[in-house]
């Protein structure tokens, strides 16, 4: 062989090797939208729930957008694995012909898929049905061609379309060209050979009429692929939230950075206390009954209900109620003493400022709006009577008596006995009751009237308070210390379902009281739930992170406030009729009529599924012990009704497992998510010949900190993997069996 032929052969081999170099595609999503357009929020909400990296780029018509710089890295790796376009910028004049072609060329070279919402039918291969444009609620269903993949979306789901403007496409004939006219191609247009396949259809509007098309999977002649929907979307729509999951899984071809976890955790505050009604007694009880405390039978019924519920849920599900308890509700009297010990007692006023006559007399209105929004010319009392008013450090006097310090020692007196059947059952774990639920702290007492008498000897006593807004450090410390002693006395402390590091403060109080927060932290509690009703108790930057207190705003640095959703199941209601009466008094003017209990529960279920479960929010939900009562003959409590409604609604749309976490584990989940986000993880894949994914690479963009390790979760082909990577470092792993669609011309 001549030297020339040898050189030619070597060159050919070199070119072959270079040509076979794996393509690197970053698993990030590009969101192309219009400036100021908020409709894309549903998609970013879904991606943020998983933890998928994404970049939002608003595009103005005629902008000099440098797509080469946007789409490619300096080493010719693809920056994005797919893109979402809403509005459909290609067809509405936001992109020039050259920009459209460059975007399409990126798809051809990388296999990146696109998802479009608000697409005009003709631009995605459909003939528009102009006579049926509108926003009326027409049910949509998936077809056999829907790329459900590993999304867990229920293929039999019925999706509402009310309020979503659209012009549907005709089911036949399907077009062979996807055409659009805009920008500098408004006259000639772009006519691209394509094959649309309906994946979502509207129910027929006339008898014997064919279904109309709502969504299509478009395959272009050049190998590109797009998922397109001919209606507008918003985060107020459960339909759009669900399609966000479907679209994301398809667009990223089953390789989704992050994790998908549906948590439904219900916390029933005030467990072991008595709740006073502010309306009539429930049916079946004497009208002289003004309060209710859960019975042992109520609690045992929920044990059985949880067991049966688990059998009806998807595999891997486990819903358990969390019972933030007040230990003062169960400690009984000494043997031989009267049920209520005789002697002098001191009733302590623990009302909030909003309950004071001055709040009404001065026409105060700042409690709900907060300190910063309170008018500067409001009376000083009003300006200081807000939910977020920071109590001056050291302010106030102790209300818990000194006798409380050694009070729990009395419980170990041989003559001491428990008078309460729930307490006895917990202590002996009768029927597995102590293991069936989660338990967490809610202070020892709560309010006047529900307090425990603390004995200084056998007879004399006093009542204590639970609200922590104005509590001293001593009061807060004793409330928690006594409840911890009660947990130990009842045998709860060492059980796996008990939480000791995060708590529920009574009335969500004390979160702007630096003295109380410091006292709780000294006893190992560094976290408490908030209430999402109050915007200042939510992390303003990321709803998947906790809020951290500051010395300036809260009087203490670094205490964690875990977000929690309120519900329309009210703390002082034990039956559906009670709850409905209060609900209608609040919402009658809004709905223009009285609602039924089924309507109330359905609205709650829709809200929880849309804003919580499909948003992958892990916030727990607030209820109270009175909601455990079984009094109306239905065999179900308000809590059962609510959970059943949510479970049924969720099952319409997804087959994911539903689980609950105890409060400490919820805290750990939030901390893990924050740590993951702080690692600034980026994911990429190596795509070899034929579209085989040869490796997954993860890089941490954060600064290295000692030997800190980051955990990078990844949904891959229907299963989950976690890739460890040093903070500030990178890792490469091979996950067999994964593939990536590459257009035939470039594969």
From TrEMBL:
Domain Agd3 CBM87 intervals: 25-250
Domain annotation Agd3 deacetylase: ranges: 265-336, 465-681
Top-level taxonomic group: Eukaryota
Molecular function per GO: structural constituent of cell wall
Entry keywords, A to Z: Signal
Pfam families: Agd3_CE, CBM87_Agd3
Signal peptide: 1-22
Entry protein name: Uncharacterized protein
Source organism of the structure: Monoraphidium neglectum
Lineage: Eukaryota, Viridiplantae, Chlorophyta, core chlorophytes, Chlorophyceae
